[in-house]
Amino acid sequence: MPIWTKPITLAQLNALNANTAVAHLGIEFTEVGDDFLRARVPVDHRTKQPYGLLHGGVSVVLAETLGSVGAACSCPEGHRAVGLDINANHLRATTSGWVTGTARPVHIGRTTQVWQIDMVNDAGEPTCVSRITMAILAPR
């Protein structure tokens, strides 16, 4: 059974991020499941740090994007989801290709949500794991 409280499509998710930092970095949503979201980021001139590796902050942007969108799409109508805390453990460097993140809820509560985002390279090897806590704000 889907956790989403409103219908979502890949086209909607990708259009939502037009003209934002997400679009500038080349992040694109690739899959919506019943209880997960998936998106990827290219490892290219926009996303590398000076040593030629994917910038760790870009992994965090991917994680925050997935967790925030997941929370927003699974909270009650009229409510807003805003970030409270995020952390990331960088496990393996990536120098080319794509890094794909998959976000799944750990906890969906009335006032908070916690999402885990697992990121892998093109070979399916873990590159980063992140967890974000979201506050769910009632309508004013």
UniProtKB/TrEMBL annotation:
Key words, A-Z: Hydrolase
Signal peptide span: none
Location of the Thioesterase domain: 51-125
KW RNA-binding (keyword) present: no
GO MF entry, a single one: 1,4-dihydroxy-2-naphthoyl-CoA thioesterase activity
GO annotation, cellular component aspect: cytosol
Family under the similarity heading: Belongs to the thioesterase PaaI family.
Full protein name: Hotdog fold thioesterase
Source species: Paenacidovorax monticola
